[in-house]
Each structure stands twice: as structure tokens, then as C-alpha cells.
Write a structure and sequence with these properties.
Layout: E1 2-3, E2 11-17, E3 20-26, H1 35-49, E4 56-61, E5 66-68, H2 73-78, H3 82-101, E6 105-110, E7 113-115, H4 117-124, E8 127-131, E9 136-137, H5 151-158, H6 160-168, H7 176-181, E10 187-189, H8 192-207, H9 211-221, H10 228-242, H11 246-257
Parallel strand pairs: 3-4, 4-6, 5-7, 6-8, 7-9, 8-10
Antiparallel strand pairs: 1-2, 2-3
């Protein structure tokens, strides 16, 4: 097992067993994603993607009840110019594009709540399983930004109408059942133990399938996204500018106090 970072900025752990690659991210603040952790996650996905021993990938996070709390508020507050802002949001863009571009099918294991960028990760995998505790929320508009970078991935999975509901009702949680009904989750389970078993069973089955067939199938799933390198870069620039506003700074500070 390779541990890429063992600081308070979070950790990424990867290992491959029986053709199944596990990528596990963790952060003490509800598995939020500061820039360093995003960069490590991006590189881990690319490394696994180029490893012939990995025939299928599982993306997961540590802990029981929070999959990913999205962007790091502390880091958002520290952004001082447009270049820094775009660079931060490009972290999410690169992770989403890496999940899209690697040849293996990626299974998402969502054990708990997903917020903002966490919803983006769940949307960018090829097949996502979750527990009943995996409610979702796109809270970006409530802090003056908007889900610009993750939006294309979310809309691709749940449709523009459902994505717009999430984006506009930025303070409202949608249940795991809602997410399943709209296509984000394939199945939901009562407990994390049941989820663990289901994900591993699926991964083991996929690891025995023809890699070339799965790679070709994945390409068909992602048809029409060939412009996402440019699109998500443009979206990162929008968020990077908005995060500098006084409105956004005040809103983030208010959220941190809750």
C-alpha cells in the first residue's frame, strides 16, 4: 500500500489486489478536498489508470457517514487573486477529467453525505453504489459561487432538470433515494457493511471481464465529453473569479461558523 501524504492536508492510499485498484482519500474535516489532496488524488487516478495490473477501479473515502464535504473553506478564504482561484478549482476539474479519461471502469463507493465537489466525484465515476445515509447537496450557490466545475458531470448523470434543482435549492439535502431515482446511484444499501460487500462483488466480477471490451464500453459512455478539458477549465475560471467577491468571502465565513 502506498501512502502519498500523511499530513493534516489529508491522505490518499492506493493498492491493487486481484485486478481491483482501491483509491481511498481521507481528510479530518469530513473528507473535504484542499488543493494538495486534489492534486494527489488526480495523480493517483492517473497512476492507477496506467497500471496494467488494475482492471477495475474503486474510488472511496475513509470513515462511515461522510463521503466528501467538497472544497476546503479555509483554502477558499485564503485565495487572493483570480489565478489562485482558478488554480484551486482546476483541482476538481483535473480529478473529474482523470476519472473520465482512464481506461478502466470506475466504481464509486459513497458511504455517506456528499456535498459540492463530492457530488461531482460521485457523478464522474462510471457506476456508483451508496448507503441510505448518502444524501447529496450542491451548496455552492449559497456561498456565492455555483457548481460550475462539477455541473457538467452532475448534469450528465442526473439530467439538466435535476441538476438545476440541486443547484438552485442550494441549502436543501436530497436523499439517497432521490439520487438513486435520478440515476446518480445504481443501488443503495442499509449499512456500510452491505455496501462494502456489494462494491467488492461487482469489482471482482468486472475484473474477470475482457479489459478491451470494458475500455471500449467506457468510451461509448463518455461520448460527447471530448471538450471537457477546455470546458472545465473555463468553468474553473468562473468560480475562481467569484470566490474573490466580498459576498462570497462573507458567506463562506458564515458557513464556517455553523
Amino acid at each position: 500500500m502506498a501512502v502519498l501524504d500523511q499530513t493534516q492536508l489529508g491522505t490518499i492510499e492506493t493498492h491493487i489486489e486481484g485486478g481491483v485498484a482501491h483509491i481511498v482519500f481521507a481528510h479530518p474535516a469530513h473528507n473535504s478536498l484542499p488543493g494538495k489532496l486534489l492534486a494527489d488524488l488526480h495523480q493517483s487516478i492517473l497512476d492507477v489508470g496506467s497500471n496494467p495490473k488494475a482492471r477495475v477501479v474503486i474510488l472511496e473515502s475513509a470513515g462511515d457517514r461522510t463521503f466528501c464535504a467538497g472544497a476546503s473553506f479555509d483554502e477558499l478564504m485564503a485565495i487572493e487573486n483570480i489565478e489562485e482561484g482558478k488554480a484551486f478549482f482546476m483541482g476538481f476539474a483535473r480529478v473529474i477529467n482523470a476519472l473520465r479519461q482512464i481506461p478502466q471502469l470506475v466504481i464509486g463507493k459513497v458511504q455517506g453525505k456528499a456535498i459540492g465537489g463530492g457530488v461531482g466525484l460521485a457523478s464522474a465515476v462510471d457506476y456508483c453504489l451508496a448507503t441510505q445515509f448518502a444524501a447529496i447537496k450542491l451548496s455552492e450557490l449559497a456561498i456565492g459561487i455555483g457548481p460550475f466545475v462539477v455541473g457538467p458531470a452532475v448534469a450528465r448523470k442526473v439530467g439538466v432538470s435535476a441538476m438545476s434543482q440541486l443547484a438552485i435549492a442550494a441549502n436543501e439535502w436530497r436523499s439517497a433515494e432521490w439520487a438513486k431515482a435520478h440515476g446518480l446511484y445504481a443501488e443503495i444499501y442499509e449499512t456500510k457493511i452491505e455496501l462494502d460487500v456489494a462494491v467488492l462483488d461487482l469489482a471482482k466480477n468486472l475484473s474477470e471481464y475482457h479489459p478491451a471490451a470494458m475500455q471500449a464500453l467506457k468510451k461509448t459512455f463518455w461520448l460527447g465529453t471530448e471538450n471537457w478539458d477546455e470546458l472545465l477549465s473555463e468553468r474553473a475560471a468562473i468560480s475562481g473569479e467569484l470566490v474573490l467577491s466580498d459576498f462570497t468571502k462573507t458567506a463562506i465565513q458564515s458557513f464556517k461558523k455553523k
